[in-house]
From TrEMBL:
InterPro entries: CFA/CMAS, CMAS, SAM-dependent_MTases_sf. Belongs to the CFA/CMAS family. Gene3D superfamilies: Vaccinia Virus protein VP39. GO terms for molecular function: methyltransferase activity. This is Class I SAM-dependent methyltransferase. The active site is at 390. CDD domains: AdoMet_MTases (cd02440). Keywords: Lipid metabolism, Methyltransferase, S-adenosyl-L-methionine, Transferase. GO terms for biological process: lipid biosynthetic process; methylation. The keyword Phosphoprotein does not apply. It comes from Undibacter mobilis.
Amino acid sequence: MTDLTSDVARAIQAPAAHASRPRRVPFFSRQLQRLLAQVTYGDITIVLPNGETLRRQASSPGPSAKLVIRRWRAIWRLINGGELGFAEAYIAGDWWTPNLAAFLEFGARNDTGMPHAISGSLVHRLIVRLRHLRNRNTRRGSRRNIAAHYDLGNAFYKLWLDRGMQYSAALFTDNDQTLEAAQNAKLARILQLLDISGGERVLEIGCGWGALMDRLTSHCDVTGITLSAEQLAFTRDRIAGAPNAQARLQDYRDIAETFDRIVSIEMIEAVGERYWPVYFEKLRSALEPGGTVLLQAITIDVARFDKYRQQPDFIQRYIFPGGVLPTVDIIRQQAAGAGLELTIHQPFGSSYAQTLAIWRERFLMAWPQIKQLGFDDRFKRMWHYYLCYCEAGFRSGAIDVGFFKFKPAVADAARCGQFMTAPAASVSAARAEKSSVRIAP
């Protein structure tokens, strides 16, 4: 890869007026043709800046994509920076596609077949890795990382989320459901899984804008914690009339009370690999005997995890600094190490793809109003890429989302100690032993 990137660098340095010079064009074209030869799903058409068209029809069915390269440097960014570099080229306007979600799904389905071809240069990978390491989720780092995303402003999120301000997967039972109806169905399912009968003390870790807290106030005493000042202000206003509800600006590691139920909706993704054992230990220590823990968690396919944890992706670089997706097995093992037994796992990734598609449409429709808040076109392309990138991940099966229900386990102390002293990385790629986990329909 070093010789290749050096050749491209020399080519890029040529004057822009000679962008279609034959000496350079065949080189870029050959690199793309090498990539296309490894495509195994779907079909793609690529139009180069000089008008040359490349096509690839794979033997297996898959997404159909079209890519228009506006500037040659987009190919250089791909070769030098891999997938992340190509995402940055999109943000810079160096390439375009009529259907970004379809193109990214095409890439996700073919990613495992050409992992080394799009990894980027060693130097670039090291730089990205070092930047990511600076985003560790210490108490101070967590506050900074959460603020980077959620403190963009309540006005921003209000323009394209549902009326309940839920920034997590909805639960669609049919294609005709509105986003609001599907989000309400998700809340109803959460209450069902929590076995709420009335009077319980409930903790929500990462309470967002308070939609679940608002629903719970009619059944039980509820405490919500967040690290986002914007979300805290919104949630406190929302639950102001409920004497049995309180929202706090607090790190999960500082929880001192115990609760009958603990729920955390898409918060584990922000914990960070280093702190997974700490997170699950806190879930267990804050839980009353006989209580229930319920997580809604995004997970990554186990076959992709090792590369993912070594090479931070677009989301980790630009959207959720410090974030890491676990696998299903990691969740099961980390929970077991803390003395929690997984009793129900209900995946619903297709619902998240549908949720993201609606968010994307609403985001683009609301863009004139969003722009008035002070965001520029670069931000628009970055967020459009983010929403399509996630949608493609769920449609391709690269990532999933699910409910994970836990009960305190009767486990032998030595076994628990073994799990808790093992570093997260040592269990990250290992398959968990088969257990009596019920996969809910």
